[in-house]
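Reagents: none. Just compute today. rRNA adenine N(6)-methyltransferase.
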Amino acid sequence: MAGGKIKKEKQKGQRAPSNHYQGGVTFHKSKGQHILKNPLLVDSIVQKAGIKNTDVILEIGPGTGNLTKKLLEAGKMVIAVELDSRMVLELERRFQGTPYSSRLRVIQGDVLKTDLPYFDICVANIPYQISSPLTFKLLFHQPSFRCAVIMFQKEFAMRLVAQPGDKLYCRLSVNTQFYARVSHLLKVGKNNFRPPPKVDSSVVRIEPRKPHPEVNPKEWDGFLRICFIRKNKTLGSIFKQKNVLSLLEKNYKTLQALKGAQNVSLGGNDYMDIAGPWNNEMMESDDDEMDMECDEAAEGEGSEFKNKVLNVLKEGNFEEQRASKLTQEGFLTLLSMFNKAGLHFS
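Predicted 3D structure written out:
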């Protein structure tokens, strides 16, 4: 009786066999190592990527190679970028002596600091903590690639595809959709990973726009940062704020000085101040509702320049509009109007 009970408990503790390869590696959640264990899901991702047999595929964070194997079967070559040396060794062992070994190139290193070679398509299950910087590294990669199919944390993915008026619509939404066509492909539950993460995931397809939009990237991003200081406040109230007016006025005076204006006197370090602090502030944050103190401009202080800024908003009927509901075309129109008035954001 006792023996039967022990046998029953042992069977209860056993896991069902899986054709998902794990090797002898321990996965670290702190490094964002969550390996896809569902082979049907892996097949679905590869299928939705639309890989051609002539494609060079970039994979980021291949882990033990479950997705890598399917990519090698579908394309011409896989370039896998992996930070963890243990995973690199496991990956090389897995494909050593197989027909795939000559078509797999493994680069050990941080993908954010690595010069990426040419590739046609990117397919990846990435560490979620690098989602934002990696997305923009890919968007600005040259030569441009056909598309990227990437697994993100669900909320981040929803921000990428959010439309004006959506709760998650933010600077990230506008910026990404400005440079690429973005579409949601799959929702992925946390139990499809080992070890399971704390959040659900989503697979997103990103297709860079060709040609690239003809807008200064720093100017565009600096403009959006201001508009999304508080996305639900009117643009009129945002552009009345003292720190916003101060930034714009410094940029305006610098531009006039560079054009040889006679009545402008700037200190030697002013231009560095303009180009530096505001543009570098919050570079690693995608929070669209930043909890930052915004000083209101004092009445009468710099009123001439303040009126110059607010007149642009009034002329375009933007004064009562909010960033949370403004379309990409609306942002472009407003930026163009500011620039025509000599007002710049970088």
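DSSP finds 14 helices and nine strands in the chain.
Action item: order primers for follow-up constructs.
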